[in-house]
Amino acid sequence: MNDRDGIADLLARRGVSRRALLKYATYLATVMALPPLAARAIAQGLAKARRQSVIWLSFQECTGCTESLTRSFNPTLEDLIFDMISLDYHETLQAVSGAAAEAARLAAMRENRGKYVVVVDGSVATKDGGVYSTNAGKTNLEVLKETAEHALAVISVGTCAAFGGLPHAHPNPTGAVPVSQIITDKPVINISGCPPIAEAMAGTIAYLITFGKLPDLDHLSRPKSIFGDSIHDRCYRRPFYDKGMFAKSFDDEGARKGWCLYEVGCKGPVTYNACATLKWNGGVSFPIQSGHGCLGCSEPDFWDNGGFYRPLSSSTSHPGAVVGGAVVAGIAVGGLGALLARQRRERAVRDLEAKEQERRS
Ligand code: FSX
Predict the structure, then answer these.
(1) What is the pLDDT of residues 111-170, one digit of tens each?
(2) How is domain 51-226 classified at the CATH fold level?
């Protein structure tokens, strides 16, 4: 296989018909909220496109983002890697290691200067010069700056890369920051979620390849087609919310009947993502369909906002409030620090409520 081959040549060699390409283009048009007529243009654009060089960097994260991508059904990861992109560097998926891996990254940067896309998962450690997260003897901070310098665009996948995520949670011992705080001279697209939806990552990369430009982005630099509506707006349990039919606990009659999970802490009204429509594992289900409220993982300050099982509308002293894995009910840690943390959380919930109210009015 030659990297200079067009995608059409590669597809033809793999026995992928024009009809199958059009079918995928129709799916992509739907995911990216484009008019149905755009499908033909996408199919033609994809067929003419050359494979996009992609360098994938992993920093402070749990590898959930890559795990999620490997469950992409449209296109499948195999299609994405072998047909549509040239994945020139990915620490988890590449066969080579050590000096050979670094050489592959540097070669891709040299040969595709100004044209390659950098995908980042994980947040960037900045405290003490970034020494708390290193790879091949270099800090993540150095590798990001070096790799992004001549990139066409940068895609932050996962809430860690997009907004700091779990590593950024209080007390943030490594000084973790999102990619957009380091890379300020070129576009950074955020595909948030902990982890992000596979098709959202794959669809955004495919959009870039097809159209050679960024999709429409929201105020947090996320593709509007995927993050334009709240989970609540697209949720199949929404009619129960509108009728005031709520589960009061996870094992009551309401829960068994599939009523709205708002009162057991669902953050769907203030969380923007396509979980309720694209779903997971090839469209099988998503957390709310499986009986668990949305945790709000695709929004900034996920973790520090906490209160996963506390209703958005309730007092913040709800005994089930959890922040960053630590139970804060009754505030285990006394003193001023705990008080300030609590005030911060209360402010965050008020902001979330105001945001939802503003959106509704
Ligand atoms: Fe973060 Fe991703 Fe959550 Fe994990 O790479 S968004 S902790 S699913 O793995 O970065």
Answers:
(1) 999 999 999 999 999 999 999 999 999 999 999 999 999 999 999 999 999 999 999 999
(2) Rossmann fold (3.40.50)
User: Which of 60, 71, 166 is the pocket-test mutation for ligand 1 (most atoms within 8 Å of CB)?
Assistant: 166
DSSP letter at 214 equals P
305-327 confidence digits (pLDDT tens): 888 899 987 744 333 333 333 32
Do β-strands 117-121 and 52-58 pair in parallel, antiparallel, or remain unpaired? parallel
Strand 326-327 to 52-58 pairing: unpaired
Domain boundaries, the chain: 51-226, 231-360
Is domain 231-360 annotated with CATH 1.20.1050.10? no
Give counts: helices (H), strands (E), the chain.
15, 11
pTM for the full predicted model = 0.83
- Taking Cα atoms as reference points, which of 187, 355, 214, 195 lies closest to residue 286? 195
Q: Is the CB of 65 under 6 A from ligand 1?
A: yes
Q: How far is the CA of 119 from the centre of ligand 1 (A)?
A: 13
Ligand 1 binding pocket mutation candidate from 159, 275, 295, 303 (most atoms within 8 A of CB): 159
Cβ density class 194-203: b for 16+ within 10 Å, e for less: bbbbbbbbbb
